[in-house]
Specification:
Number of strands: 0
Order of helices and strands: HHH
Number of helices: 3
Largest sheet: none
Distance between the termini: 12 Å
Helix content: over 70%
Shape: elongated
Radius of gyration: 13 Å
Strand content: under 5%
Number of domains: 1
């Protein structure tokens, strides 16, 4: 079970990046694509901090 929250945060950030690329290029909404992509590091850091609090 250890490390699961960090892995979940990493997976969520990967989905954010892929969604960002899709929105930016396929839907041609540059501003929304950048906004969605900026959530990736936030999700990683947030999940790591939650995991530290749970130890």
């Amino acid at each position: 079970m250890e490390g699961m929250i960090s892995k979940l945060g990493l997976a969520a950030s990967a989905v954010s990046i892929l969604g960002s690329v899709y929105i930016y290029f396929v839907q041609a909404d540059e501003m929304l694509g950048v906004f969605v992509g900026l959530w990736a590091p936030t999700l990683i850091l947030f999940s790591q901090e939650i995991e530290k609090l749970m130890d």
